[in-house]
Amino acid sequence: MKKVLVINANPKPGSLCKALAEKYASVAREKHTVEQIHIGDLNFEISLDDGYDKVTELEPDLVDFQKKIQWSDHIVIVSPVWWGTVPAKFKGAIDRSFLPGFSFEYIDGKAMPKQLLKGRSSEIIITLDSPPFWYRYIKGNAIYKQLNNSILDFSGIKNTSSTYFGPVINSSSDKRNSWLKKVAVLAQKIP
User: Which residue of 30, 56, 127, 138 is 20 to 30 Å from 83, comparing CA positions?
Assistant: First the structure.
Protein backbone atom coordinates (compact mmCIF):
# COMPACT_ATOMS: atom_id res chain seq x y z
CA MET A 1 0.00 0.00 0.00
CA LYS A 2 1.32 3.43 -1.00
CA LYS A 3 0.54 6.95 0.13
CA VAL A 4 -0.72 8.64 -3.03
CA LEU A 5 -1.19 12.38 -3.47
CA VAL A 6 -3.39 13.43 -6.40
CA ILE A 7 -3.01 17.10 -7.37
CA ASN A 8 -5.54 18.76 -9.66
CA ALA A 9 -3.51 21.68 -11.04
CA ASN A 10 -6.50 23.23 -12.86
CA PRO A 11 -8.05 26.03 -10.75
CA LYS A 12 -11.41 25.82 -12.58
CA PRO A 13 -14.02 24.17 -10.32
CA GLY A 14 -15.73 22.13 -13.07
CA SER A 15 -12.77 21.11 -15.22
CA LEU A 16 -11.96 17.87 -17.00
CA CYS A 17 -8.74 17.81 -14.94
CA LYS A 18 -10.81 17.76 -11.76
CA ALA A 19 -12.92 14.88 -13.09
CA LEU A 20 -9.75 12.97 -14.07
CA ALA A 21 -8.16 13.63 -10.67
CA GLU A 22 -11.32 12.51 -8.85
CA LYS A 23 -11.50 9.32 -10.95
CA TYR A 24 -7.84 8.53 -10.36
CA ALA A 25 -8.21 9.09 -6.59
CA SER A 26 -11.36 6.97 -6.28
CA VAL A 27 -9.78 3.99 -8.06
CA ALA A 28 -6.43 4.35 -6.25
CA ARG A 29 -8.26 4.27 -2.88
CA GLU A 30 -9.14 0.63 -3.54
CA LYS A 31 -5.51 -0.36 -2.80
CA HIS A 32 -3.77 2.74 -1.43
CA THR A 33 -4.14 5.62 1.00
CA VAL A 34 -5.01 8.75 -1.01
CA GLU A 35 -4.95 12.49 -0.33
CA GLN A 36 -6.09 15.10 -2.82
CA ILE A 37 -5.31 18.74 -3.53
CA HIS A 38 -7.45 20.88 -5.81
CA ILE A 39 -5.32 23.93 -6.53
CA GLY A 40 -8.45 26.08 -7.00
CA ASP A 41 -9.43 25.48 -3.36
CA LEU A 42 -6.16 26.87 -1.97
CA ASN A 43 -5.78 30.42 -0.65
CA PHE A 44 -2.32 31.93 -1.00
CA GLU A 45 -0.39 34.74 -2.68
CA ILE A 46 0.99 33.16 -5.85
CA SER A 47 3.97 35.47 -6.32
CA LEU A 48 7.32 34.92 -4.64
CA ASP A 49 8.11 38.64 -4.83
CA ASP A 50 11.47 38.50 -3.04
CA GLY A 51 12.62 35.20 -4.52
CA TYR A 52 14.79 33.39 -2.02
CA ASP A 53 16.31 36.64 -0.67
CA LYS A 54 13.72 36.94 2.08
CA VAL A 55 11.68 34.28 3.89
CA THR A 56 7.99 34.76 3.13
CA GLU A 57 5.72 33.07 5.66
CA LEU A 58 3.61 30.33 4.11
CA GLU A 59 -0.17 30.53 4.32
CA PRO A 60 -1.89 27.53 6.00
CA ASP A 61 -2.89 26.03 2.62
CA LEU A 62 0.75 26.00 1.48
CA VAL A 63 1.89 24.48 4.77
CA ASP A 64 -0.69 21.73 4.15
CA PHE A 65 0.54 21.42 0.53
CA GLN A 66 4.10 20.83 1.80
CA LYS A 67 2.93 18.34 4.44
CA LYS A 68 1.05 16.30 1.83
CA ILE A 69 4.08 16.29 -0.50
CA GLN A 70 6.30 15.05 2.36
CA TRP A 71 3.70 12.46 3.39
CA SER A 72 3.37 10.97 -0.09
CA ASP A 73 5.16 8.07 -1.76
CA HIS A 74 3.62 8.75 -5.18
CA ILE A 75 2.45 12.11 -6.56
CA VAL A 76 0.00 12.37 -9.45
CA ILE A 77 -0.21 15.77 -11.15
CA VAL A 78 -3.22 16.35 -13.40
CA SER A 79 -2.70 19.59 -15.30
CA PRO A 80 -4.04 21.38 -18.34
CA VAL A 81 -1.71 23.08 -20.78
CA TRP A 82 -2.33 26.83 -20.53
CA TRP A 83 -0.14 28.98 -22.77
CA GLY A 84 2.22 26.06 -23.26
CA THR A 85 2.67 25.01 -19.64
CA VAL A 86 0.95 24.82 -16.22
CA PRO A 87 -1.65 27.31 -14.90
CA ALA A 88 -0.23 30.26 -12.97
CA LYS A 89 -1.85 29.27 -9.66
CA PHE A 90 -0.21 25.84 -9.72
CA LYS A 91 3.15 27.36 -10.69
CA GLY A 92 2.68 29.84 -7.83
CA ALA A 93 2.14 26.97 -5.38
CA ILE A 94 5.39 25.41 -6.58
CA ASP A 95 7.27 28.73 -6.43
CA ARG A 96 6.03 29.44 -2.93
CA SER A 97 6.42 25.97 -1.40
CA PHE A 98 9.24 24.11 -3.20
CA LEU A 99 11.78 26.16 -1.29
CA PRO A 100 15.36 25.61 -0.14
CA GLY A 101 15.18 23.42 2.94
CA PHE A 102 11.98 21.75 1.71
CA SER A 103 12.63 20.39 -1.79
CA PHE A 104 16.36 21.07 -2.17
CA GLU A 105 19.34 22.36 -0.23
CA TYR A 106 22.34 24.27 -1.52
CA ILE A 107 25.68 22.72 -0.53
CA ASP A 108 28.83 24.87 -0.35
CA GLY A 109 31.27 24.00 -3.11
CA LYS A 110 28.73 21.89 -5.05
CA ALA A 111 27.23 22.86 -8.40
CA MET A 112 24.05 20.86 -7.82
CA PRO A 113 21.91 21.13 -4.69
CA LYS A 114 20.92 18.17 -2.55
CA GLN A 115 17.54 16.71 -3.53
CA LEU A 116 15.34 16.60 -0.42
CA LEU A 117 12.30 14.79 -1.85
CA LYS A 118 14.09 11.61 -2.97
CA GLY A 119 12.29 8.30 -2.65
CA ARG A 120 9.06 9.53 -4.22
CA SER A 121 7.67 8.71 -7.63
CA SER A 122 5.35 10.77 -9.78
CA GLU A 123 2.97 10.51 -12.68
CA ILE A 124 1.90 13.38 -14.93
CA ILE A 125 -1.52 13.50 -16.64
CA ILE A 126 -1.92 16.35 -19.11
CA THR A 127 -4.95 17.75 -20.93
CA LEU A 128 -4.64 20.10 -23.88
CA ASP A 129 -6.68 21.63 -26.67
CA SER A 130 -4.19 20.69 -29.39
CA PRO A 131 -3.30 17.21 -30.61
CA PRO A 132 -0.80 15.64 -28.18
CA PHE A 133 1.61 14.63 -30.96
CA TRP A 134 1.74 18.21 -32.27
CA TYR A 135 2.27 19.66 -28.79
CA ARG A 136 4.95 17.14 -27.80
CA TYR A 137 7.00 16.94 -30.98
CA ILE A 138 6.36 20.23 -32.82
CA LYS A 139 5.85 22.66 -29.92
CA GLY A 140 8.56 21.12 -27.72
CA ASN A 141 6.55 19.63 -24.81
CA ALA A 142 7.23 22.55 -22.44
CA ILE A 143 4.92 21.30 -19.68
CA TYR A 144 6.78 18.00 -19.38
CA LYS A 145 10.16 19.71 -19.43
CA GLN A 146 9.05 22.14 -16.74
CA LEU A 147 7.39 19.57 -14.47
CA ASN A 148 9.75 16.64 -14.91
CA ASN A 149 13.14 18.20 -15.58
CA SER A 150 12.94 21.49 -13.72
CA ILE A 151 10.75 20.68 -10.69
CA LEU A 152 10.30 16.98 -9.96
CA ASP A 153 13.74 15.67 -10.93
CA PHE A 154 15.46 18.71 -9.40
CA SER A 155 13.80 17.83 -6.07
CA GLY A 156 14.53 14.10 -6.34
CA ILE A 157 11.06 12.93 -7.43
CA LYS A 158 11.26 10.34 -10.23
CA ASN A 159 8.52 10.51 -12.84
CA THR A 160 7.30 7.08 -13.93
CA SER A 161 4.85 8.04 -16.70
CA SER A 162 3.23 10.87 -18.61
CA THR A 163 -0.17 10.63 -20.27
CA TYR A 164 -1.66 13.19 -22.66
CA PHE A 165 -5.36 13.72 -23.43
CA GLY A 166 -6.41 15.96 -26.27
CA PRO A 167 -7.62 17.81 -28.06
CA VAL A 168 -10.12 18.52 -25.28
CA ILE A 169 -11.84 21.39 -27.08
CA ASN A 170 -14.82 20.03 -29.00
CA SER A 171 -14.19 16.51 -27.63
CA SER A 172 -17.26 14.31 -27.37
CA SER A 173 -18.62 12.92 -24.11
CA ASP A 174 -17.66 9.45 -25.42
CA LYS A 175 -14.06 10.61 -25.86
CA ARG A 176 -13.97 12.13 -22.36
CA ASN A 177 -15.44 8.94 -20.91
CA SER A 178 -12.67 6.96 -22.63
CA TRP A 179 -10.09 9.25 -20.98
CA LEU A 180 -11.73 8.67 -17.58
CA LYS A 181 -11.50 4.91 -18.19
CA LYS A 182 -7.82 5.21 -19.10
CA VAL A 183 -7.14 7.17 -15.89
CA ALA A 184 -8.85 4.38 -13.93
CA VAL A 185 -6.46 1.88 -15.52
CA LEU A 186 -3.48 4.11 -14.63
CA ALA A 187 -4.65 4.26 -11.02
CA GLN A 188 -4.70 0.47 -10.85
CA LYS A 189 -1.03 0.33 -11.95
CA ILE A 190 0.62 2.60 -9.38
CA PRO A 191 4.26 1.53 -9.28
Answer: 56
DSSP conformational letter for 104: E
Tell me the CA distances in angstroms from 85 to 113, 122, 166, 183, one per residue in order. Answer: 25, 18, 14, 21
Positive or negative: CA dihedral 17, 118, 84, 189: negative
Domain 3-188: which CATH class? alpha beta
- Give the C-alpha separation, 171 to 109, whole Å: 52
Sign of the four-CA dihedral 64, 101, 73, 75: positive
Domain extents for the chain?
3-188
Number of other CB atoms surrounding residue 120 within 10 Å: 19
> Closest Cα partner for 116 from 47, 64, 66?
66
Q: What is the pLDDT of residues 16-34, one digit of tens each?
A: 999 999 999 999 999 999 9
| Predicted TM-score of the model (pTM) | 0.96
